[in-house]
Amino acid sequence: MQAQSELKSKVKAFDCNHFIDGKYVTSNNGKTFDNINPATEEILGKVSEGGQEEIDLAVAAAKKALKGPWKKMSTSNRIAVIRRIGDIILERKDELAHLESLDTGKPLWLSNSLDIPRAAYNFHFFADYLRGLGTEAYQTDDQAINYAIRRPVGVVALINPWNLPLLLLTWKLAPCLAAGNTAVIKPAELTPMTATLLGEICRDAGVPDGVVNIVHGFGPDSAGSALTEHPDVDAISFTGETTTGKIIMQAAAKTLKRLSYELGGKNPNIIFADSDLDEVIETTLKSSFVNQGEVCMCGSRIYVERAAYDKFLEKFVEKTKEMVVGDPFDPKTKVGALISEEHYERVTSYIQLAQEEGGQILIGGKRPEGLNKGYYLEPTIIVGLDRTCRVVREEIFGPVVTIIPFDTEEEVIAQANDTHYGLSASLWTNDLRRAHRVAGQIEAGIIWVNTWFLRDLRTPFGGMKQSGIGREGGVHSFEFYSELTNICIKL
Ligand code: NAD
Q1: CATH fold of 2-263+467-490, please?
Q2: Is 192 close to ligand 1, i.e. is its CB under 6 Å away?
Q3: Arch. (CATH architecture) of 268-456
Q4: Of 193, 277, 292, 344, which residue is most buried, by most CB within 10 angstroms?
Q5: What are the tens digits of pLDDT across the range 426-483?
């Protein structure tokens, strides 16, 4: 690993252009927007602003590439190319991590230890998975044999949020390519840099021109809507807000596109009194405040069994106070800057609302002293609210948690499920039977028992209710990115 000071002088932010048909291009009308560093509020560079014209070019390139060398490439070679993308990401890890932290305001150690290695692993994982992938076969008495073959769906739109930019983008792109599709990517407008570099990384790995295209721009009336409405886009994989998902579904309906949705969450973190409190506190600090609380899986609704409530609160507040908020490039920093001024205003408006709803801010709720520039907010703990309050019900997507005591299993299950979200949940207990019992009743796509964010990429990942449609991971990703055709042969 290169020394950070050396990297800081070497790695520079850059202007981000689109990547279409294997080349970097600006928008035809020359339009750009500013990319802001959330930790300093300075301009990092200009970003080409794409619209209908650039989307048309990118989709045409992706459609053409479906029939070119990409289609003719043997599966073994495709596996090798996909693995190579992962290798190059690892070779460029320090640079990519640095850029990810500049763009997002997240601590560098997090980009280095999670975002970028995981982005590389996404390609290694799906390349290896493809090698072992099979399909179904059935014999119908002695009359016929059926077997299913997998084919690409076609041109897939990959639309991404800003919180884990390269990690989430590659979580889609790797299986999309492994299944033989071509892609048009619309990165989040707030975090364009690592997505831009992914274009040349794919090219250097041997991905043919037109297979991976990247168009920058905004959502509504911009590159986003042009992409979701495009008649030659066959499927959309979207990660972002539930409200955006509803708009995209309407656009997709016009040509009945296949949809995969990973949406918002307001996840319960349920702590029973019999659990190991030190372990609970250590993990709950992460599930509450890591990545500034800007993780869809964050457990922002904490429920503690009354017998452990006071002890938990005291220790949790004490440990939260120790969390250093500040410069993403300082190794001591645990919580960096929120993504944008607009998001900062949104998160702090919930802190104001908590007070109006009768809540008590136990700690945090304000800008840390001495940090006058950048969108910094202290980790915030709120008590005294109940399930009817908006602060408890709505996704805040910042370093803000509510803590509510409970008395019975039935009561906490009802509270945990009283939401239109259903993404994930954590549950802490040393009682094995209770763990099974409660886990089986929580309405969420992913439930962790005595842990949080422990991921095995083979397992189904996704939300129920308004937190998503479909599952990603292992064979589930291939189900979305492939067309299965059944071939029935009479014997
Ligand atoms: P967002 O919905 O505002 O934007 C996501 C992407 O959609 C961006 O690229 C944006 O430009 C694009 N977009 C916006 N409007 C569009 C439109 N009308 N047509 C086409 N594209 C459009 O979300 P965000 O603020 O970037 O991300 C935060 C949200 O993402 C949170 O709700 C969070 O929970 C969710 N999220 C979910 C997961 C998951 O796995 N379930 C993971 C990360 C983030």
Answers
A1: Aldehyde Dehydrogenase; Chain A, domain 1 (3.40.605)
A2: no
A3: 3-Layer(aba) Sandwich (3.40)
A4: 292
A5: 999 999 999 999 999 999 999 999 999 999 999 999 999 999 999 999 999 999 999 9
Tell me, using a 6 A CB cutoff, whether residue 394 lines ligand 1. Answer: no
Q: Whose CA is nearest to atom 14 of ligand 1?
A: 219
* b/e per residue 102-134 (b: at least 16 CB within 10 A): bbbbbbbbbbbebbbbbbbbbbbbbbebbeebe
Farthest CA pair distance, the chain: 79
Q: What is the pLDDT of residues 346-374, one digit of tens each?
A: 999 999 999 999 999 999 999 999 999 99
Which atom of ligand 1 lies at the shortest distance from residue 463's CA? 41
Ranges in the chain annotated CATH 3.40.309.10? 268-456
Active-site positions?
Answer: 262, 296
| Residues of each domain in the chain carrying CATH 3.40.605.10 | 2-263+467-490
Q: Tell me the two tokens of residue 242.
A: 């539930």
**Is 245 touching ligand 1 by the criterion CB < 6 Å?**
no
From residue 455, how far is each of 309, 446, 448 by CA, in Å? 29, 10, 10
| Spatial separation of the C-alpha atoms in residues 177 and 80, rounded to whole Å | 12
Reported pTM: 0.97
Among left, alpha and beta (phi > 0; psi -120 to 50; other), residue 457 is: alpha
Amino acid symbol at 384: G
Q: With contact defined as beta carbons under 8 Å apart, do 224 and 217 qualify?
A: yes
Per DSSP, the three-state class of 122 is helix
> Which residue, 350, 337, 334, 340, is CA-closest to 289?
334
